[in-house]
Specification:
With 138 residues, the chain is an alpha+beta fold. It has one domain (5-137): Nucleoside Triphosphate Pyrophosphohydrolase. The chain is 22% helix and 34% strand. Strands 1, 2, 3, 4, 5, 6, 7 and 8 form an eight-stranded mixed sheet that branches. The longest helix has 17 residues, at 121-137. It is globular and about 40 Å long. The model has no long low-confidence stretch (mean pLDDT 92). Belongs to the Nudix hydrolase family. Keywords: DNA damage, DNA repair, DNA replication, Hydrolase, Magnesium, Metal-binding, Mutator protein. This is 8-oxo-dGTP diphosphatase. Its EC number is 3.6.1.55.
């Protein structure tokens, strides 16, 4: 059995909204939307990888909160794991710095207004209750 490589995604939450990032590369994914993130490097904890990837891709200082239940296959040997995350106080606003050309904060009502990558759809569904909780908490 080949070793699987974990790709982490962030369900970045703010005021009852979820951040979606539009891919600019590779060509077969360009124009579709995803939860931002990236590969976990050798010896790196998934949570640390997610914080690093959000800094590299979006220029933000974020913290992970909790793992979203489930794991979703990507092309072998990759699997997607998702954590909820939030911006730390004083963080810059997210900017599409790497691999993305647009960002959108989506409310619960807008969540399906974007063309999500197929593998992100189950994770987005799992995150919806957290979106509702975030709205109620304010």
């Amino acid at each position: 059995m080949t070793e699987r490589i974990v790709v982490v995604g962030a369900a970045l939450l703010d005021a009852g909204r979820l951040l979606a990032a539009r891919r600019s590369a590779p060509p077969e994914l360009a124009g579709r939307w995803e939860l931002p993130g990236g590969k976990v490097e050798q010896g790196e904890a998934p949570e640390a990888a997610l914080v690093r990837e959000l800094r590299e891709e979006l220029g933000v200082d974020a913290e992970t909160m909790e793992r979203v239940p489930g794991e979703w296959p990507l092309r072998p040997p990759y699997v997607l794991q998702v954590w909820t995350a939030r911006l730390r106080p004083g963080s810059a606003a997210p900017e599409p710095l790497q691999d993305h050309d647009a960002l959108r904060w989506l409310t619960h009502a807008e969540i399906w207004d974007v063309d999500w990558l197929d593998q992100d759809v189950p994770a987005v569904r799992e995150t919806l209750p957290k979106l509702d909780a975030g709205t109620r908490a304010r």
